[in-house]
Prior knowledge:
Strand order of the largest sheet: 2-3-1-4
Strand content: 5-15%
Distance between the termini: 112 Å
Shape: flat
Helix content: 40-55%
Number of strands: 4
Largest sheet: 4 strands, antiparallel
Amino acid sequence: xxxxxxxxxxxxxxxxxxxxxxxxxxxxxxxxxxxxxxxxxxxxxxxxxxxxxxxxxxxxxxxxxxxxxxxxxxxxxxxxxxxxxxxxxxxxxxxxxxxxxxxxxxxxxxxxxxxxxxxxxxxxxxxxxxxxxxxxxxxxxxxxxxxxxxxxxxxxxxxxxxxxxxxxxxxxxxxxxxxxxxxxxxxxxxxxxxxxxxxxxxxxxxxxxxxxxxxxxxxxxxxxxxx
Length: 227
């Protein structure tokens, strides 16, 4: 028994904890309370800014079948974009008269640099694209911060003009909030004033449509009043 007891090894930290159980319990409770307080006071955002490294390349080629758009436009652009470093995946869609390429980069990639790399690749591929393209491919990055965080719908037994007036007032109220960067009113028609001219009376007094247009334009001028 004496030889066996001499061979038993003890871990000092464990033995000390067992001998001071009350202190260990108290320290555990204090650590739990401090951790909860730190979590409760930690700053949090309801809508944290998240950067997605996506770049979209859109090409309009009207009047062409999806097969022609894929062979003449999409594949030529993909061939140059594939040479860019840091690409995680790339998806393309070729439909009637349009080509769409979505490029996803690895996390941590500088989106401004990635956007410029894609633009450079598109510029290199222009010589391989059809000569009858109406416009050059459009390259843009996808900024999640530009997406609306809230949509407010309005309806009721009111005319379109009344709903527009209510919407404009609500737009001004929301824009007055400091944290709001932009409010956009959609779904309503722009106001329009029509001038229905009497051609016979115009001829009688020798007035042309240009005279009417000039009269309206002169009544809506903003000029300096002087000192």
